[in-house]
Design a protein that fits this description.
mainly alpha, 2 domains, 8 helices, rod-shaped
Amino acid sequence: MPSPQFVELLVLIGIALLRFGVPFLITAGVAWWLYRLDVKWRGAAPVIATSPTDTPAARAIDAHSRIIGEPCWVYRACPEQVRDKCPAYLQPELPCWLARLRCDGRLTGGCRCCSIFATGHTAATLAGD
């Protein structure tokens, strides 16, 4: 027959396993179940176009290039001193108003009154609908 101290030690180990082991096993089981559910849902989800041409900025660029056909600094005949500091000149792949918005965080009054902004922004908005 084992000694009473050994039995007490076994009881303490059993209680510790129950106290910490059971919640751990339940948590691991729930995590595994959620992972499997996520895999199932990802497989069943429709594929959404993630091409870079399907973004509002890309639609704005496309609308801008179709309407204007030339960079705004050429269209507006900007002097070289102004052009070298202009965000549109430094980022020619973007419409001028979008380059200014990304650089300054806002549009100037000149942008809002400009025909390039009016036509490009309207076309980009309509292309996004």
